[in-house]
Design a protein that fits this description.
The protein is an all-alpha fold. The chain is built from three helices and no strands. The model has no long low-confidence stretch (mean pLDDT about 90).
């Protein structure tokens, strides 16, 4: 099995975290406004649904980058501890690496 370099995992994780924020942030904003006791329009309606997205992305991108970097680094280490790549349950290796 080919192992992903740490820097590649960091960049991929940061990009993944940013992509998720850009895609889901406006949906979450609209959901929050729909739940407002003041009503949807009074809470802002459809205006400014991306306001604050940079702060959210700036906060989640480093965390996602570190998660992916750690996850990809630990997968082969844990697989080796469990008896190599031919382990009977590779899903367990992935779950342990992700925890």
């Amino acid at each position: 099995e080919r192992h992903t370099p740490f820097l590649t995992s960091l960049l991929a994780g940061g990009l993944a975290g940013t992509t998720v924020d850009l895609a889901l942030f406006p949906i979450d904003t609209l959901k929050t406004r729909l739940q407002s006791p003041h009503g949807f329009i009074a809470a802002g309606g459809f205006r400014g649904v991306y306001r604050g997205v940079m702060a959210a992305a700036g906060g989640s991108a480093p965390g996602a980058a570190l998660f992916f970097g750690t996850y990809e680094t630990m997968k082969p280490v844990i697989a080796e501890m469990r008896g190599g790549e031919s382990s009977s349950n590779p899903a367990l290796t992935h779950m342990i690496a992700a925890s």
